[in-house]
Structure formats: C-alpha cells, structure tokens
Amino acid sequence: MSSLAADYEIARAAKMLPITEIARNLGLPDEFIEPFGRYQAKIRLDILEAIKSRPLGKLVVVTAITPTPLGEGKTVNTIGLAMGLNRIGKKTVSTTRQPSLGPVFGVKGGAAGGGRSQVLPMEDINLHLTGDIHAVQAAHNLGSAFLDNHLHHGNKLGIDLGGIFWRRVMDMNDRSLRKITVGRGEGVEREDGFDIAVASEIMAILALASGYPDMRERLGRMIMARTKDGRPVTADDLKVAGAMALLVRKALMPNLLQTIENTPAFIHTGPFGNIAHGNSSLLADLIALRFADFVVTECGFGADLGFEKFVDIKCRVEHLRPACAVIVATVRGLKAHSGKFKIVTGKPLPEKLFLEDLGALKAGSENLEKMIEIVHAAGLPAVVAVNRFPADTDREVAEIASVASKAGADGCEQSEAFAKGGAGTEALAHAVVKASERKSHLKHFYDLATPIKGKIEAIAKNVYGADGVDYTPLAEEKIALFTKWGLDRLPICVAKTQLSISHDPNLKGRPRGWRLPIEDVRSSAGAGFLYPLSGKIMTMPGLSASPAGELMDIDEQGNVVGLAGR
Known about the structure:
Blueprint: H1 7-13, H2 19-26, E1 33-35, E2 41-43, H3 47-50, E3 58-64, H4 74-87, E4 92-96, H5 101-105, E5 113-114, E6 117-120, H6 122-126, H7 132-152, E7 159-164, E8 168-170, E9 180-182, E10 190-192, E11 194-196, H8 201-208, H9 212-220, E12 223-227, E13 232-234, H10 241-248, E14 255-259, E15 264-267, H11 282-289, E16 294-298, H12 303-317, E17 324-329, H13 331-336, H14 358-364, H15 366-377, E18 382-387, H16 394-406, E19 412-415, H17 417-420, H18 426-436, H19 452-464, E20 469-471, H20 473-484, E21 516-518, E22 520-524, E23 529-533, E24 553-554, E25 560-561
Parallel strand pairs: 3-16, 3-17, 4-15, 4-16, 8-11, 17-18, 18-19, 20-21
Antiparallel strand pairs: 1-2, 2-14, 5-6, 6-14, 7-12, 9-10, 12-13, 14-15, 22-23, 24-25
Helix pairs in contact: 4-18, 7-10, 9-10, 12-15
C-alpha cells in the first residue's frame, strides 16, 4: 500500500483480529468483556476489583507544542509510539479520546490517527463508535427537559431565569443553534442555546469518574442554575441525576479496540480541550495500567493546556503518577511560531512553509523551549518527538534536536509514525523507555487550598508566562459567589485559545510582556473544577465553507468513502 493512499484505504487493507483475541492477548478475562460487534468491546467495571492487586505499568503522557489550526500529529504519534514500544518488546496500550461528529464532518474529517498509525475500525470510531457521545447528549438534554418542566409547573425552587447555566447540546457543528428561544407558547419563555455535546459537563464527569458511585455523586452535584436568592440548584435538586445516570451507565465502560498493527487501544470519552480538561478517561488508564508495561495516553492541545490539566485535574483523582512526557513538535509548526506565516483553518498551508528556513525555525523554537520547561516544572522527564513530514530537511530536524538538547530535554527523536507505523517510532520508543527509568516526582502547579485567584495566577505566571492577571467585575462577582458556595478548593481549568500560550491566538512563539484577562468564571462542580474564561471560547462550532462532509459518501456495497481521506 502506497504511503500516499487515503487513510480509509490503508485502514481497509489492514488485517484486524477479533476483539476477543485482542483482549485475551492483553490478558483481559473473558467475563469482563462485552463485545460490541466483531472488532469493538466494552470493559465491565467490576474488573477494577478483580485487578486491584496487580502491579501498575508506566504511564507516558503525550503532549505537544502550541498547535497550528491543522494540528501537529499528536494522536498519530500517541498511537505510533504505542506500536513502537510493542515492537521493542514492551507490552503497551494506547488510550485516546473519542472524536466528535462535529470535527469529523467539519474540518478534520476524522480523528482516529492517520496513515499507518491508526486505531481501527476507523469508520466506526469516527461515526458513533459505541454511542457514548449520544448517551451524553441524551442525558444532558434530559436535564434541560427536567429544568424547563420544573419552570412550567410553578418553579418551586425559585430559579432565577437569568441565572440558568445549563444549555442544551448536540454532537454537530451548527452555528445557528448558538442562541435560541425556548418555551414560546408552551410555558415559560426564555433564552437558551446549544453547545457541542463533547462540551457537556457530563462528558467531563465520565472522563474523571472512578466508578459508578463516583459518577452518580458527580452527576448529582452539577449546578444547573441558581435561585433568586443566590443559592445553587443542582441536578439532584431537580431530581434528574438518577435518570441521567441510567442513560450513561454503559458509556462509563471503556471501549477496547486495536491499532493497525493489532496493538490494544482504548478510545474512551472526549471532553472538550478548552472548557474541560481535554483528556481521555481515567478508567481506561487505570485498567490498562494493570495489564501493560506501558500505557501511552494523550492530552489535548499544547503542554500549556491539556498537559497542565492532566497534571492538576486528572492526576489528582486517583493519584496517577506518569513516568515521562513526550512533546510532539513539527518543523512547520515551529516555523509558524516565528510569526512569518499565516495559517488559516480550512485553507492550504502557505507554500513557503515547505521551504527550508532555519531562521524561522530558530525564532519559533522558543515555543518548544517553553513546553519543555512546563513538563520539567511538573517534575517529569521530557522527550521530544519530531513528527517528520516529507518536506522537512535533515538540517531542520537537526536544529530542533539542538534546541531540545539545550533546553534540557531528556531525549529527542524523529518520528515517522504516519508513513511507517510502529517501525517509524522505534528510536522514539527506546528514548521513552530510557527516560521512564529516571526518577520522576509529579508536582502540581498549585495547592488546592490556595484561593481561586491564587490558583489562576499560579497557572498564568508559572505555566503561561504572563506578568499577571486582570479580572472583569463579572469574574470578581463569580469568584466571590463560588467561594461562598464552598467551591474555592476545586482545581482550575482555564478556558483559552489553543493557538497561543497566551489568551490571544495572534501571539505566537513564547509571548512576553502580557497579562491574562479573565472575563468570567464558571463552575463544573460535578466534574470537579472551575473554569475561568480568557478570551472568546467557541462551545458550538460552525461548519466551514467547504466542510469535510462534502467529500464523504458510500459505495455500491455500502462501504465508507472519503472519511479522513487526503
């Protein structure tokens, strides 16, 4: 198969094993496997009790430089590294997020990896998988129905119509639903809107819950509104949390699949990378770590976003202790951080970006230096993976290696996972094993006892490199309100652009001399964090002028055509 073949063609040519065989090869007992067709399975949660005494493998977290709008290949390299580790004799599992239908039909056209570094069956992963996101959507909108029904029947809780936080969700990009009016002619009329389903707090809860009791408790404490006298109204107050739990009980079970080289792979939950923590499920990691030497997991966007949230939110839940971090970098991405090139989502990359330009590369490499600093500040070794593209020159790749070495990286290797699969990541795998043998001591970026403002400022200054933080009157009001409600000990999940370390997507590289503006602070009390908003955060994307869905179809046999194609 040519390396230039479309992703779906490469995936279709691969030989998949029955998922029961993948499970047995990993060591998962049959009684805990619920097959979902021939090549997918759910893992029963009662396995947790059965395996609690098994030794833990090593957890490797994959992060990246600040990405361009097209991404830098973090998922491809997460999958590829897992396959590479298996090739060098390390029993390894990958754990990644489930893609939303919005990006699939919008810009990306699929999110199961690419080329010879994919999780299969690619079509099912991108088109519903086991229905987890739909379950989240149904449970979330059930909450909306209960809330509006409560208003219709007299509003006994005294909910303030201007203090309703709970919006509806749908798993599709549809800008026309961002602002709507509900209840017209049918009861209490009010302004409402839709977010994309993966932005639901329920999705963040599934990603962080340690089991059914924890999930149920978290669902119950979700704050959906406030009363006229300033009290929070939770899902338990509206008596809907139990019904929500019924709808997502199966969705809490991790999904087991396989890579193109038959490496076991969990794809489970897909929390938004901005207003949520942008990491795959805790449960998938906990199960995989009991059966593998290494588990390779991925966090959303750059080290300033998904990795910081991985450290300060996800790792606190069950005291996860990662062995090392891998930072994915690209020549084109670092050149873009020089500020010399304009990259626009949905449009071809500038032609000059593909020409050797060591000056632009050196200027933009400050971004990589900062990401290495962030990983080291968390107490972890940092290995740089140069995701190589055909236009990259040997001198450019060598320049990145030099920058990484001077910044104190614990290794730097090029990766050709897209073109060669696991064979293209063996050198990277050896570097990761070596780095994982070093002692690591995970350090959170702040203490939970620190007041809300202190935690925000610790992230702004110590992670982003801001000079300080500025708060709007609304943000000040919300901080005071959440402190009054006893939410001040929750972790912080800053919502900001992924296209810059700062709040401003136009500030490339490593911005200096700036302050972080906080416009609002919102609660995800059920998930267990507060999320300050810095800049405009889009929670319901729109389709582009030429969405990826235009290229998709089925053939005469019903096979998928054009999904994740190039």
